[in-house]
Design a protein that fits this description.
Helices cover about 80% and strands about 0% of the residues. The chain has helices at about 1-10, 15-35, 40-55, 65-95, 100-120, 130-160, 165-190, 195-205, 215-249. The longest helix is centred in the middle third of the chain and has 33 residues, at about 130-160. Residues about 1-10 have low confidence and may be disordered.
Amino acid sequence: MEKFFELLTQMNPFDLVQVIFWGMAGAISFYFSIGNARVWTSISIGFFLIFLSQAYGINPWGHYQKLTAFHYIVGTVAIMMITHGFLEYYVFCRTFEISGNKLIVYLSTLGILAASGVFLMINPNPSPNTIRNIRMVENAIWVFLCVMNIELVRKIYLAIKDSDISKGFIAFGLVFFFIFLWKGSELYLQIFQWDQDWQDIIALMTDESTDFDQYPARIQFSQEVRRYAGLLSGISVGGTFTYIYRLLK
């Protein structure tokens, strides 16, 4: 417990506030998935998993490479669950049919995460470079699927625009826009090896200089976009689930 509070005091204030808001959003979305229709289950679980993927920042065992890698895998599973959920909702809007039940969704998600954990356990400890590659893959999937989800929520809104809940999907579009900026700016920094943590790894692995100091303005701008967009994504998703939950009660 002492290690946990020590990590809290050492975190960047922006990252700490972001984790807190995603924790609130995760709790609301998980409760939402229990108390509402099956069609919301994948969406809610996905947003709950985002919090788990972000919690590595306050994880007392975060120095274990395999656990860090697992957090990024959880983030990848999260956006896949969310996208699957919105696809289900769109099909539901058109056909009023939904297959499966909540228990199957929960067990399937746990099975995927368990299989990912076993995969990491039976393989060597991932190097810092490998962990960074896993994180880049996560961010790339998030960026492309956020664009897809924005289009999905637009189509869902058009299909149910006469209902009271339609405004909630406008809010979801805003959520995905903030997430796109958050993950997209982080991916941009990673592609050009401008992410700050990676600079330390480069210094240890090679004597060659990088162009980190040649583009301070755009690097600083991207870092600020990542901080504020991440914060706004947590606030907006918490508010969206609260709003929709009140409508469906």
